[in-house]
Amino acid sequence: MKLTVKNYKEATKNIDFKKLPEAAQEAHKEFDSFADFYNEDKDIKEMLDNHFKIVEPYLKDSEKKSSAPKKAPAKKKTTSSQKSTKNVTKKAAPKRTATKKTPAPKKAQRKPIEVDLMPLEIKVIRRYLNFHNKKVTERQVSLLYKVIQKAATEKTIRKTSKYASEIKSISNDLIKTYKDMNGTCKFEVPDSLYTKLKKIVDDYGVTPAVALIKRFINLYGNITKAKAQRLLTTVTNSLKNGKVNKSDKEFEQVKNVQKHLHDYLESDKLLVTNVQLKGLQGIAGLGK
Description:
The protein is 57% helix and 4% strand. By secondary structure, the chain is mostly helical. The chain has a two-stranded parallel ribbon. A two-stranded antiparallel sheet has the order 2-3. It has three domains: 8-61; 116-205, no CATH class; 206-284, no CATH class.
């Protein structure tokens, strides 16, 4: 299996990273810090791609372990006294239950601000908040600061950006923390800043239709009946409860995803053309 940012966590969950080189162990621990900016920074992309190459040979061993048949527990023998008790016991008459009406599906709650692709400022703010109350390394802190500096240099985050002042506060705090820390530290986001930033990120969400399309793309090439059924259930529920509706510009694509999944479960073949797949990747921002 070829590792990607999208399938990494699922694919490596059975790997014992203690057996891998120390550099791979460190990269694995800090994966979340790097993954958000995989497409934003060439150095991060190169580092993660190299990490994937190191880890990929170990996937086969983890797959063998996970697929090894487990011994079925021995059945307990029932004694003659137990058998006779069972025979004597009378079955209780089934109780009549009133038929319950199936409740109408609840209307899904949607985020105040929905976007197809998460803005870089929000990614930075989320990553910064994820440091809160956690032990972080100098590399994690410097990495996030580097992303901010690069974004400022390349004008992907400008002084006129909506959250420019918040990004500046984050940048200043990262510099201060880096200077004061000695290798590692427990990261503390100032209370007033945390509350302000948390409200910002909580308002943002990826458009549900795009999120479903991304999940479908991530299944492609690694699909199973169970995964397909789970996603089909989610897609169907999203269409029923209005999480995805006809006003969404990706509505037809989600309906197509639903059909592809249904057909796969019926025929065991996922019939998606390259043109269709590339179209979905473009919508989901995964065409890079």
